[in-house]
């Protein structure tokens, strides 16, 4: 039986939302060298794929958090997909900026919500989890009860897992690094030779390629 993790991973590979280039690594904003690059915003350009993602989010939220009252997207990458998920669930949507606006109402959270409401946060990608958890913190400070976070994809770094545990915020994702690499080998997106390099990166991403 094909799992949701495999379905999402294959979609991401098919449209080059995730690129695997062990021989020609990318440089992340953090300065890390990486054989993988993920841009889930590309999924928005493919109606069938964005529909699958929105429906998968909605299904998970119904299963995990049936008491959810509001869906919150993390700006900017998860705003659109968060709206799509909220639409599937017929729930209100808000989004959280990376920082408060410097003008106007100086909001960090945009949209209507009430203190005490049960909120599920949507993210597009989890790397270390730092920026994602800032959104959780902002919602909690505003009086919302954050039930957990759902994301399209995670690299599965130990640091991220520890950060979410420390923040007491459950994390669930539609797909993940292990499912992606397994599928990439099966579908011949990468070779066995590349696999060793990808596995080494996964163990020590901060020093890989230096």
How many structural domains can be distinguished in the coordinates? Answer: 1
Helix segment tally:
7
Helix content: 25-40%
Cα Rg? 17 Å
Largest sheet: 6 strands, mixed
Look at the helices and sheets and give the structural class: alpha/beta
Strand order of the largest sheet: 7-6-5-8-9-10
Q: Name the poorly predicted regions.
A: none
Q: In one word, what is the shape?
A: globular
CATH architecture: 3-Layer(aba) Sandwich
* Number of strand elements: 10
Proportion of β residues? 15-25%
What is the top-level CATH class?
Alpha Beta
Provide the residue-averaged pLDDT. Answer: 93
Distance between the termini: 40 Å
CATH topology: Rossmann fold
H-E string: HEEEEHEHEEEHEHEHH
Task: Summarize the structure in words.
This protein is α/β, with parallel strands linked by helices and 210 residues long. The chain has one domain (4-203): Rossmann fold, CATH 3.40.50. It has 7 helices and 10 strands. The chain has helices at 4-14, 47-64, 79-89, 130-141, 158-166, 177-186, 192-203; strands at 18-20, 26-27, 33-34, 36-38, 70-74, 93-96, 109-110, 118-126, 145-154, 171-176. Strands 7-6-5-8-9-10 form a 6-stranded mixed beta sheet, sandwiched between helices. The protein has a two-stranded antiparallel ribbon with strand order 1-4. The chain has a two-stranded antiparallel ribbon with strand order 2-3. Helix 1 (4-14) crosses helix 6 and helix 2 packs across helix 3. The longest helix has 18 residues, at 47-64. The protein is globular, with a radius of gyration of 17 Å. The mean pLDDT is 93.
């Amino acid at each position: 039986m094909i799992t949701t993790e495999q379905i999402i991973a294959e979609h991401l590979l098919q449209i080059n939302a995730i690129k695997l280039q062990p021989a020609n690594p990318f440089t992340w904003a953090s300065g890390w060298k990486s054989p993988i690059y993920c841009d889930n915003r590309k999924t928005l350009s493919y109606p069938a794929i964005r529909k699958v993602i929105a429906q998968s989010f909605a299904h998970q939220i119904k299963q995990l958090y049936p008491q959810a009252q509001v869906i919150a997207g993390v700006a900017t990458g998860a705003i659109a997909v968060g709206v799509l998920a909220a639409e599937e669930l017929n729930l209100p949507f808000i989004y959280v900026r990376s920082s408060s606006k410097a003008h106007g109402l100086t909001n960090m959270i945009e949209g209507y919500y009430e203190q005490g409401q049960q909120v599920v946060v949507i993210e597009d990608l989890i790397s270390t989890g730092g920026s994602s958890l800032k959104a959780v913190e902002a919602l909690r400070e505003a009086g919302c009860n954050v039930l957990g976070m759902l994301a399209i994809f995670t690299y599965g770094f130990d640091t991220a897992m520890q950060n979410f545990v420390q923040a007491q915020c459950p994390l669930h994702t539609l797909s993940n690094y292990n499912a992606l690499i397994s599928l990439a080998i099966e579908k011949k997106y990468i070779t066995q030779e590349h696999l060793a390099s990808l596995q080494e990166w996964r163990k020590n991403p901060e020093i890989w390629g230096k």
